[in-house]
């Protein structure tokens, strides 16, 4: 199955993590987010990959190269971000004739369901949610076939949402050129889906597991999902009196010092160091060349390449960008005392994350002084600084 993977977006809802990298290249369990999408596609039966790139395209190209997991890779460039139909249209010059699949490069899909989608075209991936009002909702007829999509309806026709995975017939090559701009000024791929529904019986293929990774806390959810799949492997240096429990991977070149306890699932990347006397737990990745110092606790977090958490610090349910430096004694709050869920700023608007536990989202190069504290839901811009002893309760 020819598979188009959409990976051209800037990812503004992920800011500040996307300030200098494309959202599909954000790290999830030791590899880029989009690599998990591509892995699932290859396992499900993709015979050719066409990756649509745009923002920071070289990052994507350098990772995948001309072949990935034995499958040839082509690239198409979306010059302007004009919508998903425009992105797929840019891929037509390298697509051969015949049917083809389209996947969002910032979503995770379970392989058996994706394989079912590939075998069922024309088809669209679906996922059942309790509250579909924030999604594109699938309309179906009495036979269960898809008849259309309603975007963010106040009165949803069903609780089946569009999972951003499609198999289109060959005619879609022509339909893509008939798409007109929507009310929000974009060329929408759902218009092509509507054309398919007029000409074919389009099946909604239910995904057993699916995650749209569009906002920072969803990066943590993706990490939690993919770390479930790791198996213990110790290639690096681990002290004799360190304790590794559950699935833990220590890559070659990583160091786990004396007195450290790691309760997996956890991944310690090459060049990273942990300890002495540190505690790492709960779906945590310590990125390449990152450092977790003496008597530090890190829980359910992502430390990107080169991030440092100084001794006597606590980091919980947080994402730290590249080369962040937390001074000794920095404490992250990750729980509201009023029992409410944590809110976070997304595109200049406070959004309910739905998570009772969420710490901070920290851009590249941030530095905190000793004994500083960061409140739950704080976002720190790239290169921001926090003074020693300061308590930060608002974004900066």
TrEMBL record:
Catalytic activity, reaction form: N-acetyl-alpha-D-glucosamine 1-phosphate + UTP + H(+) = UDP-N-acetyl-alpha-D-glucosamine + diphosphate; alpha-D-glucosamine 1-phosphate + acetyl-CoA = N-acetyl-alpha-D-glucosamine 1-phosphate + CoA + H(+)
Assigned keywords, A-Z: Acyltransferase, Multifunctional enzyme, Nucleotidyltransferase, Transferase
Pfam families: GMPPB_C, NTP_transferase
Cross-referenced CDD domains: LbH_G1P_TT_C_like, NTP_transferase
Pathway, per record: Nucleotide-sugar biosynthesis; UDP-N-acetyl-alpha-D-glucosamine biosynthesis; N-acetyl-alpha-D-glucosamine 1-phosphate from alpha-D-glucosamine 6-phosphate (route II): step 2/2; Nucleotide-sugar biosynthesis; UDP-N-acetyl-alpha-D-glucosamine biosynthesis; UDP-N-acetyl-alpha-D-glucosamine from N-acetyl-alpha-D-glucosamine 1-phosphate: step 1/1
Domain Nucleotidyl transferase: 3-224
Family: In the C-terminal section; belongs to the transferase hexapeptide repeat family. In the N-terminal section; belongs to the N-acetylglucosamine-1-phosphate uridyltransferase family.
The name this protein goes by in its record: Bifunctional protein GlmU
């Amino acid at each position: 199955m020819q598979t188009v993977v959409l990976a051209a977006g800037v990812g503004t809802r992920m800011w500040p993590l996307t300030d200098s990298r494309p959202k599909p290249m954000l790290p999830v369990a030791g590899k880029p987010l989009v690599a998990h999408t591509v892995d699932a596609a290859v396992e499900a039966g993709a015979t050719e990959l066409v990756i649509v790139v745009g923002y920071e395209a070289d990052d994507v190209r350098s990772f995948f190269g001309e072949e990935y997991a034995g499958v040839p890779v082509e690239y198409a460039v979306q010059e302007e971000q004009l919508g998903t139909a425009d992105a797929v249209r840019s891929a037509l010059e390298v697509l051969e004739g015949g049917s083809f699949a389209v996947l969002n490069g910032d979503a995770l899909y379970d392989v058996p369901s994706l394989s079912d989608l590939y075998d069922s075209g024309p088809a669209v991936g679906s996922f059942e949610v309790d509250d579909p009002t924030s999604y594109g909702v699938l309309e179906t007829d009495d036979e269960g076939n898809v008849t259309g999509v309603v975007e963010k309806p106040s009165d949803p026709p069903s609780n089946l949402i569009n999972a951003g995975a499609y198999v289109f017939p060959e005619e879609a090559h022509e339909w893509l050129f008939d798409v007109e701009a929507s009310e929000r000024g974009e060329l929408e791929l759902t218009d092509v889906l509507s054309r398919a529904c007029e000409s074919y019986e389009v099946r909604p293929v239910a995904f057993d597991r699916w995650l749209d990774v569009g906002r920072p806390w969803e990066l943590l959810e993706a990490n939690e999902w993919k770390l479930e799949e790791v198996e213990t492997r110790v290639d690096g240096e681990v002290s004799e009196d360190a304790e590794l429990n559950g699935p833990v991977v220590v890559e070659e070149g990583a160091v786990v010092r004396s007195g450290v306890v790691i309760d997996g699932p956890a991944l310690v990347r090459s060049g990273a160091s942990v300890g002495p006397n540190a505690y790492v737990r709960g779906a945590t990745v310590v990125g390449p060349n990152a450092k977790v110092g003496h008597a530090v606790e890190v829980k359910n977090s992502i430390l990107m390449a080169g991030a440092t958490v100084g001794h006597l610090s606590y980091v919980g349910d947080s994402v730290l960008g590249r080369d962040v430096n937390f001074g000794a004694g920095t404490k992250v709050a990750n729980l509201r005392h009023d029992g409410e869920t944590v809110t976070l700023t997304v595109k200049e608007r406070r959004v309910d994350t739905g998570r009772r536990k969420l710490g901070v989202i920290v851009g590249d190069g941030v530095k905190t002084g000793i004994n500083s504290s960061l409140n739950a839901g704080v976002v720190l811009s790239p290169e921001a600084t926090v003074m020693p002893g300061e308590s930060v309760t608002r974004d900066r």
